[in-house]
Amino acid sequence: MTIATALHQIQNRQLILPAIQREYVWKPSQVIRVFDSVMRGYPIGSFLSWKVLPETVNKFRFYGFMKDYSAFDNRHNPVIDIPADREVIAILDGQQRLTSLNIGLRGTYAYKNHGGWANKPWSYPERRLHVNLAEEAPENELGLKYHFQFLTKDDVERAANDPNKQWLPVPEIFEASDTSAFIQLLARHGVGNDPDASALASKLWEAVHKTASLHFYEEDDQDIERVLDIFVRVNSGGTVLSYSDLLLSIATAQWEGDARAAVHGLVDSLNQTGNGFNFTRDTILKSGLVMADVGDIGFKVRNFTTANMAKLEAGWDAMSSSLHVAVGLLSDFGLSGGSLTADSVLIPVAYYVHQRGLDHSYRESPKTRNDRETLRSWVLRSLIVRGVWGSGLDTLLRDLREVIKSQGDSSFPVVAIERAMSVRGKPLTVTDALIDDILSLKYGKARTFAVLAALFPHVDTRNQFHIDHVFPATLLDKRSLRREKCGDGTPRFTPEQIDELIDRRDRLPNLQLLPGLENIGKSAKAPDGWLAEEYSQPENHSAFLARNALPQSLPSSVTEFMSFYDDRSVILTERIHDLLTSHVPDPSTTDTTALVDLDEELAEGDDSD
């Protein structure tokens, strides 16, 4: 169909959006690129629509297309009610492009002025899309041929006397629905006798009203699982949408309140805890299914039934409170978005909090200190061992839920939990490969903080701690190492030795956690001299070395670094063995058969956890 036909159907609410669609996210430059493509006759992609019959309509909530977008106060699509006896055409793929065409040809786009106040409405003036009829686009990096721009009324007035600017509002092209109206449009703007300007305007008018450039594939199957599967697949090339995005629409249709607003609000609130987290709707919705004791917690349409959604809605306030306490605990454990390597660890923690009805006092009370330490140790150890929170997640979460439900009334049942994990083939046990993996962790990686925090339980992670190089990184840079000379003036290190020193510089045996101010004070001092200054008393000196798993002799120069590195590797290996001593037998050495489900088999080799 033509662009004009599609926009008329949007205008008449014949083309609408199911709630499975994410909201409009395109920037002005993306809108302009679409219009440049339209003018040049380039294809702008095919569209996928879904004919929704009356019997399916009431299972979803639907939205209209955005027309007047404002980054300040109008980001959300309008909700529309569809009569139960009417079929509709819902856009499954192509919303961003169609919305961009709708905004450009029928509406406005209000974005913040450069340097404007973010919380003031006047910083977001209303802008309409215009095309310059005086000339084509100036040279640009985007490769645009035609000069489109979103302009305010003041912008247009300021350009009135510029011979290189003849701005035509693009919505007037849409409003000129026939040839007569188009001729009047040219005359009104004084370009009827200008062949170049007329040609440019005519090219856009033809592209909007005459060229059938929008190609739709229509799906008419009413099987929601099939439709969602198609939707996920066709969207996987862009901003990937997860099933939680899609299934949230079903919850939205079935909740009495606004499920979308409730989930979005909770996610935003949780992510502002402590130093900040990056939890997604996936994790929060999965947590809700687990805490609501829904039998199957997979992201499947059949699990988002009216009954299950009623459970979720009825318990939402209590679940939200439990999630806030659980995220607070993760923050207390020193974790944040930058160091939490698997968001899913939140779910069993939240279920434990929810099952016991714990509030924020649990995080501070001396009476719960031992239980908190048990929980902290388990959380950090589960983040250290690769693959725990990878494939087979739903099966593992169901098993942990059953253990907590049956044995977690008064304390965190770590022994039973590790037994269940072990049976699932996810034991928290030590292997030589795991030791090598841990010792090779590098500075700046998210998993490194979790490992250090677990290895050194004396660290109060509620305070600010920095990951510090025991031997300063500035003394182990390539330039400094090249300057090192032997007594006879020859280079002390070969290029290969320099590469090895630099590689070991950032690995775990040369890392420790220090309080922020202490780390700043240490700066680039050699560790032996710094320690002698800061901990001059022998007992304090020895206590620091023991706490931080450091050898008795610390390096004073680069030449002693390799020996120190090897000594500390040995000490850390012993500490890792002590830390990860499992509470249950490894299933590989017992008669217990580890259970592996199909998801785990299919995901083998995909794990990057």
Polypeptide structure, described:
The chain has helices at 3-11, 28-40, 54-57, 95-106, 153-158, 170-175, 179-188, 195-209, 224-235, 243-254, 259-271, 281-291, 306-314, 316-332, 346-356, 369-384, 393-407, 414-423, 432-439, 446-455, 478-483, 495-505, 516-522, 527-534, 538-547, 561-579, 598-603; strands spanning 15-18, 46-52, 62-63, 68-70, 79-80, 88-93, 108-110, 128-132, 148-151, 167-169, 215-219, 465-469, 511-515. It has 27 helices and 13 strands. It has 609 residues and is α/β, with parallel strands linked by helices. Helix content is 47%, strand content 9%. The longest helix is centred in the C-terminal third of the chain and has 19 residues, at 561-579. The chain starts with a helix and ends in a 6-residue tail after the last helix. The model is unreliable at 236-241 and 583-609 (pLDDT under 50). Helix 2 (28-40) packs across helix 4, helix 14 packs across helix 15 and helix 17 (393-407) packs antiparallel against helix 18. A six-stranded mixed β-sheet has the order 5-3-1-6-2-11. The chain has a three-stranded antiparallel β-sheet with strand order 9-8-10.
